[in-house]
Amino acid sequence: MSAFNRFGPRAVLLAGATLLPTTLVAQTVPGDQPTTQATTPDAAPSGESNDDLQDIVVTGQTSRDRPLISASADITYATREDIDRRAPRSTADMLELVPGIFVEATAGEASNNYSVRGLQGGGQRFVQLEEDGMPILYGGGGADFFFQQDLTIDRLEAVKGGSSGVLTVNGAGATINFISKRPNFKEFEGAMRLTGYSYGLKRADFYYSAPLAENLAFNFGGYVQSSPGVRKNPFDYAGYRIKGSLEYRLPSGGSIRLSGRRGDMETAYYASAPYRFDDGDPASIPGFNIQRDNIGGDAFRSIQVPVSTAVDPDGFRQFRYKDGIRSLSNQARLDIDVPLSDTLSIFGRGRYMDYSYDFNGLFPGSGTGNAGLASAVNYLTPDPAVSPVIDLLRAGFAAYPTAQRFGIRNIRTGEVIGSNQTAALNALNGNGFLQRTTLNHDYVDGRDLGINVGTRWEVGTGSIKNSLTVGGMYYNVRRNQDQSATASVVNDVKNNSDIYDIVALDAGNGVVGSLTDSGLVSYGDWGNGIRQRKDESYSLYANDEIAFGDLRIDGGIRWESDTATAFDGNSAAVNQAVQPSVGGVVRNVGSTFNGTFSPTNAGRTGADGKLTQDKISWTVGANYLITPGFAVYARYADGFQTNNIDPITTIELYEAGVRYQYGRLFSGSVTVFRTNFNNQSYNFANPANPTQQQNINADLRTKGVEVDVVVRPVRWFSVDFQGVFQDPKLENLQIDGATQSGFEGNRPERTPARLWTVTPAIQLPNGLGDIYGRYKYVGKIFADAGNGVALPSYGVTSVGVNLNVTQQLQVSFNAENIFDVVGLTEGNPRQGQTQAITDGYFYARGIVGPTYGGSVTFRF
């Protein structure tokens, strides 16, 4: 969405702002509540205004009434109308409104990936998601488990780099701030919205606000929903999220606001699925429609997985696909803004959230990769060069010496097919395939306390004005993780797939015994899975901005000290035996938690598991307003990301841009940038042994240009174009500390060189609404840092209409991916950094086929 509001005057609040029900908004900084210079009601923009330069923007800086055109940072915002037009199915979908952010929204409503400015895919921990200027989670990544837009959200605001890394924690790449509606102090207002989509989503949103006394008002809103997810699913996931606030306006100006938020939500989750290449293009395997189908289903409803008794005393941990991801959160928050004089004010905000999620996700091809996707005949052939489960077959011969052959037994139907029945095996579901699918049960509970307090001082003489803000932040967070009992099963390749036991057969194909237990072929695949993490962070920051007429110079600095603690559960020297009731030939639970902990990377942290690291982030920028409609700006930023006990990652950003406004006809910006991500470090599973984690460390270098423009040749028609064209490269790549050859100059995994969207819109006469289209293009990406598997470019077309039936009643319709395009956002991340395609087949994550639906909104 263009940084210049095509619909008329708006106030833009970034990096910590909140919205008052007024059109003119004064300065806002992290932790600050905006004060107003006028009390004009925030009327809906008419679209007839010709003065976009009235847009006020605060990008984590401190001067009052700064127009967008004079800002010295890369800023984007999206109004409530823009969000509705995007019709997001997830929080990640909304980030597509921000140029330069690559979104991999293929997992469902939660646990999606996104990255910015050349960072490899899955780099969301460098993009801080905020709600009203406070991080949803201190660490950045994972925030979409606990947040989704609803009618309580007024708009989205974003700033990339620059002051983002100074005025918030862990936002060196970008800050995406979701601004809530503020209570109405004048009259009662409310809204109801009913939404439905073709894949089965049913949702009801609501919002209410009213004054309680002269200076006291409240609001309350949220949504309830049920949905099977965007792919076929026999289960329906339900839940709700609600929030409310009570605000008191001080007689001298400023405010005190107490708010709370609660969520209890179940959502579907989708990971990799099998594809084939058809003349170089990704396509479905026969019997499995990659655009709609889902491996998960009834067979995965509830599975008892053997585990260490130190995890669960009865020796089992239940995997529940029927629950998907269940996310619980409770938050209390206090925001205070108090003016002490005309030039001095203090602010404070704090929030405490306790949260948990119980993740039950299926990962086809995980660990075994493409080798686990093979014909059923090969699975049952006791040849180490052929069978993906040869170790299991060998154990089967030892356990059942009278067996003549092996076969598969459908857990659901009980049907047995022997290895000698090749025709039946090859006809299985029209493709003859079996695969290994990992059951990933990951439970996390955490606490996240955040506080931000400070003061602001403003002075001005003639054409010289200065604004100084100083403050401090404190975060105290902890996180406990139980990812034990990660196991794998053998299942077929179809929608709502079946799980199979591998069985030993006699000469007549009678079952002699089972090699597996309810299809489970291994336990403890990803280690014992028990971890504890804590962070206690202190930040001090200052931001100063000075204006000399049309020249504005600003700079900010933040020092953060983080004391991190990390413990991993210890594994027993001898793996624990499975419980007596467990069948099959696998007789232990795999990697076994023994009930004790040791410091993670003790050589780095010491015996107490603690490590204190500190770093300084700073930025300086300038803007010169050449004419009232033409400005140039430049900025340098040196930011960082804390990583618990892992080394701090630094991010260096250079950018320069121009902004131009020509009446109604044209408005927009062009930015050139260079980004240096130093010591980018993350772990991945060793594809040869998924219980082992390997570390990749590399420097990333990206240069590019970002475009964000709106052209309106006539009053009723506009075209919005936004995109990024970049050249990201890897340097100095190491795996487990050893320099790797063949990676230098490669493109980071899952990073497009081209990413753009064009949105034409037609305004209907007499304010009736609008009709719009949207075309999103994603350039070719690589599935791995070795650039071995290239995933082709694709473009997705969407259309929609918004109709204002009456002043209170609006009807909207949206259809996405109307041409059923196949688009892949990543390969198989657990197959390592040098992926390959085996016999024309591979695993990847992809977008869904056409979906359509709409909503009815009634405002009162």
TrEMBL record:
Where in or outside the cell?
Cell outer membrane
- What transmembrane ranges does the database entry give? none
Supply the InterPro entries for this chain.
Beta-barrel_TonB (IPR000531), Beta-barrel_TonB_sf (IPR036942), Plug_dom (IPR012910), Plug_dom_sf (IPR037066), TonB-dep_rcpt-like (IPR039426)
The question of whether Nucleotide-binding is a record keyword is answered with no
Provide the alphabetized UniProt keywords: Cell outer membrane, Ion transport, Iron, Iron transport, Membrane, Receptor, Signal, TonB box, Transmembrane, Transmembrane beta strand, Transport
Q: What is its main location?
A: membrane
Positions of region (Disordered): 29-52
Q: Where is the signal peptide?
A: 1-26
Per the record, the domain of life is Bacteria
Every copy of the TonB-dependent receptor plug domain together lies at 70-172
For membrane topology, the record states: Multi-pass membrane protein
TonB-dependent receptor-like beta-barrel domain: residues covered: 397-818
SUPFAM superfamilies in the record: Porins (SSF56935)
UniProt biased composition (Low complexity): 29-45
Q: Tell me which family the UniProt entry assigns to this protein.
A: Belongs to the TonB-dependent receptor family.
PANTHER family according to UniProt: CATECHOLATE SIDEROPHORE RECEPTOR FIU, FERRICHROME IRON RECEPTOR-RELATED
Protein name (database record): TonB-dependent receptor
Gene source species: Sphingomonas longa
